[in-house]
Structure formats: C-alpha cells, structure tokens
Give the backbone structure.
Amino acid sequence: MRAYLLALLALLTLSSAGFATTTPAFLSDTEIRLTPTFRGLELDIVGYAAADAEGRQPDVLIYIYGPSEDYVLRRKRRFLGLWVNAEIAQVPDIPSYQWVLYTAGASRRLSDFETLSRYRFGDALDAFPNDEWRRGIEEDLMRSGHYGVEPGGVFFRDGGLYDGSAFLLSTLQPGSYQVSITLAYQDGARQTRALALELRHDNLTAWLIRLGNEQPLLYALLAILMALVTGYGAALAFRR
Amino acid sequence: MQDLVFTFPIAGVSLNLMVLLALGFGVGILSGLFGVGGGFLLTPALFFLGVPPVVAVGTQSVQVLAASVSGFWSHLKRGNVDLKMGLYLTLGGLLGSSLGVQLLALLRVLGQADDFIRLTYVLFLGFIGTIMLRESLSAVWPGLRQRNRPQRRTLHVPFLHGLPLRTRFPKSKLYMSRLAPVAVGFVVGILTAVMGVGGGFIMVPAMIYLLGMPTLIVIGTSLFQIIFVMISLTIQQTFFNQAVDLLLGFILLLGGVMGAQIGVRLAGRLPAARLRIVLAILVLLVAAKLTLDLVIPPRFVFSLTPDEALRETEVAG
C-alpha cells in the first residue's frame, strides 16, 4: 500500500509544478470500520516536501490524535500486605490516542521542540502534583499502545517524498481522528497540513452499544433471551 | 489462530475465539457434573485473559444462566427439583443480588471494585476449596475421618432451625421455616452479584448441611434458583454497571451449554469423590494465583481507565 501511495504521489508531483509550494499528503485509509474481527491496522502516511532554496529538506513531524476522553488514574499502594488502588485522580479531556513520529534529528533542530510535549497531554497534566503521576499516565498509555513517540519514524525517499506509519489498535475509540503534518524548514518557515481519519463501529456493534446505553432493559432482555434459547436448545439437542 | 481473534467493544479487549469456546466448554462440564454454574472458575479465567473484572462479573450472568437452564431442564425431567424450596431460595437470592449490584456500583465509583472482586474470590475460593478438598479426601479415604467423630448429615444451626413461619417441603421431606431458605438465598445472592457466579458452590453445601435437603434434590433445586437470580442480575448489571458484553457472553455460553450436557451425563458414571478432589485442587490453585496477583508488587503501580461515571452522566444527559 505504501509503495502504491508513493508512486501515486510521485506521479502527481511530477505532473504539476504547483506542488512545489504545497504539502500534498495522503493516508492509506481515511475511514476504518471497527468490526469484531478488526485486529488493528498499519496506517501509512505519505507526502511530498519541497527542499528549501539551499536544497535542504525540512524536518517532518506527523502527529496523529484521536477524540478526547476523560480518564481516571489510579495508583496502587501496599495496604495490609495487599496491593490495592489507594489514590485516584481524574484526568479530564486527553486524547484517547496519540502517535508522534518525525524525521531523524528533528528534535535537535526544531527550536520549539518543547511543543512536542504539548502534543502529549495538553493542559491536563498541570493539575498533577508531581512528575511521578505524569509519568504514570504516559507509561500506562504507552503500554496499552495508545501513545507513542517515534523519533526517526518518518523517512525521506527520492525526490522529496516522505512516508511514515503508525499502528492503529483494534480497541481504539470510534470517532474523528486528525493527522497533522508539519514541515519545519531550517530558516524557520513552517507548513502544515491536516488530514482527517474516521473510525466507526460496524452497524451491528454500533447498534449494540447504542442499545446498551439508551435502552438497557431491552439490551438485558436480549441477553436473557439469548441465554434461555441457547440453554434450552442445548438441552433439547442433547436429550436422549 | 490469528484470524480467530475477536474484539469485544464493551470489554475493550481482543481475545481468541477458540480459547473462549474451550473455556466455556470446560466450565460447562463442571456445571453439569457438580451442579454448579462454573462462574467461580470462569470469572477468574476472564481476569487472567485481561477482561476488566466488572465486565467479567456482569457478562458471566449470561453464561451461567444458559448453562443453568441447560442443566436444570435435565434435572427437572428426572424429577430432581423441589420447586417450593426453590421459590424461597429465589426470593432470598433476588434480594441479596440487588444489594450486591448496588454495592458493586458504589465500589466502582470509589475505584475499588476490581480489587474487591479479586479479594472476595481469594477468600471464598480458598475457603470453599479447602472444605471441598477435606470432604472429598475423607470420602475417598475414610481412614482420614476422625474415628470417634461420626459424619454429620446436617449442621444444627439454632438460628435457622428456630425461625418462625414453618412449612412442609414435601419433595425434600422437610418441615422448616420459610425464612431459612430465604436467608441462604440472600447470602448467596450477594456473592452472586459481586463475584459473577451462580452461587451453587456455596448453595449446594448450604442446602445439604444447613437445610438438610437430600443430595439428589439439591443440584436441580440450586439450578432453579440460579436461573431466576441470573435473569435479575443480567438486568441490573446492564442498568447500573453497563457491564454485560453480549458478544463475549454469547461465545462463552455456546461452549458452556454444550459442556453442561456432557457433564450431566457424566455425573452418574464417573467417580464423583475423586473428581471433587481434582475440582478442589483446581479451585485452590485459582485462589493461589489470585492471591499472588494481589500480594506481589505490581510491575506498574499506575493504571488509567476511562472515567465510566462521567461517561454514564454524559450518556444519560
């Protein structure tokens, strides 16, 4: 898929001089269906970045983020010999998925590299008392695959074409995701491009979730009916 | 095998379909063999697979219900059910399980539900497993029983046997207070809601040793109570905890109901006492694993989960 996108982008680049001043970019998928059998997907991002007047290629920073969600952070402590949740804090409004990838060496050259930390969790971490809790949030999200940083995750090919990829988990929240691409030139110029990505449940899953939230009694009766029919059916099927 | 991985949106995990079917089937056999729902083994197994404990407990009600219906029908046809006793047990069970669901909802808000469920399992599996092992070893090797201590058929509990509102239970050939089975059902109902089990592994010995019911009647009557309590629980867990994953429950019960039928047929053919030893050891091993999970320092002390309470408020709004 990535090779195909690169070839397409190369063709478009060669066919139009206007691309020298824009930041064309493409995603391998713009809409993903979250079905029960969906096991995750490698999202490819390809684009074109023109060199500056001195022939230097820009740093490319790709930031993928999902819809925001409210979380609860729990910290275990030892109590009477058992490790139990002893402290709880609410972590409001942080992206449910974040992936940052950039060209090698970008962290040294970007004068506002600290803005990468902005991509982490925004203002939500300001409420936390110390770094330990902030690291706890980061570790948990990284462990679950909902947050990651890939230095050198974007590669330049021939002719100003670049590409990178990020793995989208099967358990991601449905909603609108954004892929923000920033080209940072060494003279300070910046170009940005935003691409949209939609993750949606398939019709059956979406219906079940909606039913459970909006009509819990009906959802429960459906579960009970399923159990009764299956149980009685098995008894009949296996009767002597 | 990779192609058989399913993502369960409510549980928020991806699991292998064959593993779930095999798990449900194995526990189903135990259900039919011993007259228990099997949830006390299946729920911890779901913990180990990464299913959030609250969802494991809630979803279990579906699987236990199906397995119980499957087993109950066979016992009913054989005439091994005391419906009158079952009704009083069910009354207590409905009251107890309602209290249990509210307790679980409160613990979720406090962020202690998962740990409380695990700790409850440790205590009860350890207790039940020890009693089962002792009793089954005594049955296989009578020499282990104390010589001067006759084997008790019924435990005399003054509180239970002194209660008013006595009535006859013809099927069980008993004359006792209606409140006695209600009390037994109530305690079991609380455990059912908190642990995601049918309660048979507590109710069956309670019916035999506390109420004095014949063993032949106990299993079918226990399944009768489990059916109605599970129906109530499924509704309550959906309403208050949004903890029933229909897809996960369906896969588990497919294996479970088939296994229950096999178990019923094996019940009369296999050496029950020796099998109870195996079951007791399995129960104790599960309790040991859960204990280790609670006692050993966790690799990660922080855990981040979606704020369910706030999400429910937004959905309700």
The first helix of chain A runs from residue 2 to 15. The first strand of chain A starts at residue 25 and ends at 27. The CA atoms of residues 50 and 188 of chain A lie 15 Å apart.
